[in-house]
UniProtKB/TrEMBL annotation:
Originating species: Pedobacter ginsenosidimutans
Domain of life from the UniProt record: Bacteria
SMART domains found in the cross-reference section: Alpha_L_fucos (SM00812)
Entry protein name: alpha-L-fucosidase
Signal peptide span: 1-25
Length: 502
């Protein structure tokens, strides 16, 4: 083989390795585009950018609340004073507690905890009012987590709230209370069920395994149809626990199940985590097309650049502790996110056309963690002042600011400033050929007009001109603040300067 052919052969090998078959989407950096189109039979069932009212509402939410509540909430990430920290992967995974700190016969103890589930302080209306005051526009509620315990009286399992001393339908109370507060409800549903005898992690191979897993698939379908029958007011599902080979092998079933759910509940919103195509690609099919109505992979992480989203809708779900979605009694010795941290994440999300969903993990009696109560109140107080910059806004096509995040609605441009400039000048870069430029500026907090002047810096080859907003010398906020800028048609074009000669 001559050198030319060897080189060609090497290039083909390199290209095939680089060929992307995103069996799982990447969440850091722009999505790599597949190098070649492949046939996909079990791909998307909806267009990548739905324009119906339900999806437009999803786009305008801004802030959501996640609630992880279940049997694990009784334990609170510890047992008899021994912490499960380091013994279980997360507080809501405490059933899998192992190692030297795990209590004797722990799994058996855990699987009997439902006999104690009787949350005497549970009040869905109180939770919904708190979420409303915080400014949440949707809630994602765990109807069943990986332990399989159903918080609704399902006909298809004995392991449900019906078998607990509490007995009542928790999911219905949540749906009714939150809907009454004008907060849309999405049901979290774990496909994975650790202690379901018909569940298996590996793809079923033998006839016996296929029959067993077939029963599990039928059970899953029954519970989902049951939820749509019981709770017709919900807006969508937030699926989880879909990463095992068993579920991935059932791509024809999951394709048809998604179709059936959508036909039964027009407008239903389902994220990209539900299923995969026949090549095993999850979140996005093997040609890079999103599988579902929004990108559902931003979990405890946020995109760094707008381009990473490829124009898809998305939400980011976030814990206040480093990890741990279920109730954790002890928050000492770990970094728990501050209200400022969370407001920054919120505004970063909405500045890139996403929703930010903050997780709450109530205890076994139905009380939020005291720190969660405090944060909910502080977020609500901030949003009450700055709501205009948070809801129903879109990404602003400007060079990102080092001082904070841009959001835009029509000719209103908002800059939420987290980093106050030491010279009191908020400089905004605007393309020289922009059809709209800053005309006036004011502080949203008090509607105080701010001095605004153009700064044509004249940097060589610079495609931008600049507008300086002058902050009042006595303006010393201790929280992020919003500058509202009215965009107007440009008055005069920037002077054309001779290019530098090097
Ligand atoms: O395993 C789950 C985890 O317990 C939690 O529910 C998060 C948040 O949705 N999702 C999975 C971990 O990525």
């Amino acid at each position: 083989m001559n050198m030319k052919n060897i080189l060609k052969f090497v290039l083909v090998i390199v290209a095939s390795i680089a060929a992307v078959n995103p069996a799982d989407a990447q969440w850091t950096g722009p999505k790599s585009k597949p190098t070649k189109e492949v046939e996909v039979k079990y791909g998307p069932l909806t267009p990548p950018h739905r324009t119906d009212a339900d999806m437009e509402a999803f786009r305008s939410y801004g802030l959501g609340q996640f609630i992880h509540w279940g049997i694990y909430s009784i334990a609170g990430n510890e047992w008899n004073g021994i912490s499960a920290r380091g013994g279980a992967a997360a507080s809501e995974w405490i059933r899998s507690w192992s190692g030297p700190t795990a209590p004797k016969d722990w799994t058996k103890t855990y699987d009997n905890l439902y006999k104690q589930f009787n949350p005497k302080n549970f009040d869905a209306k109180r939770w919904a009012k708190q979420a409303k005051d915080m400014g949440a526009k949707y809630v994602i509620f765990t109807t069943k987590h990986h332990d399989g315990f159903a918080l609704w009286p399902t006909k298809y399992s004995d392991y449900s709230v019906s078998a607990s001393p509490y007995k009542k339908d928790i999911v219905k109370q949540i749906v009714d209370a939150y809907t009454a507060e004008g907060i849309d409800v999405y049901l979290y549903f774990s496909i994975l069920e650790w202690n379901n005898p018909n569940y298996m992690g590996k793809a079923p191979k033998t006839e016996e395994e296929k029959e067993k897993f077939g029963k599990f698939l039928a059970y899953t379908r029954n519970q989902l149809l049951e939820q749509l029958d019981n709770y017709p007011k919900i807006k969508g599902f937030w699926f989880d626990g879909t990463w095992d080979a068993s579920w991935k092998s059932a791509y024809e079933f999951t394709y048809n199940l998604e179709k059936e759910l959508r036909e039964k509940h027009p407008g239903l919103i389902i994220g990209s985590r539900f299923r995969n195509d026949e090549h095993g690609s999850r979140h996005f099919d093997s040609n890079g097309n999103i599988l579902g109505d929004y990108e559902q992979g931003w979990e405890r992480k946020l995109p760094a650049e707008f381009e990473w989203l490829n124009g898809n809708d998305w939400d980011a779900v976030m814990t206040i502790p480093p990890n741990g979605w279920g109730y954790m009694k002890d928050w000492s010795g770990i970094y728990t996110k501050t209200t400022d941290d969370l407001l920054d994440m919120l505004m970063r999300s909405v500045s890139m056309n996403g929703n930010f969903v903050l997780n709450f993990g109530p205890d076994g009696n139905g009380n939020m963690h005291p720190e969660e109560d405090k944060i909910a109140k502080e977020i609500g107080e901030w949003i009450k002042i700055n709501a205009e910059a948070v809801y129903g806004v879109r990404h602003a096509a400007l060079t990102p600011s080092k001082l904070g995040y841009f959001t835009q609605k029509d000719n209103n441009l908002y800059l939420t400033v987290f980093n106050q400039p030491v010279n009191g000048i908020v400089r905004i870069a605007v393309p020289k050929n922009a059809k709209q430029v800053p005309g006036t500026a004011a502080l949203l907090v008090n509607s105080k007009n701010l001095a605004l002047k153009q700064a044509d810096i004249g940097l060589d080859l610079d495609k931008n001109t600049y507008y300086d907003v002058i902050l009042p010398k006595d303006f010393q906020p201790n929280k992020a603040f919003v500058i509202k800028i009215k965009l107007v048609a440009p008055k005069a074009k920037a002077a054309k300067l001779m290019d530098a000669k090097m």
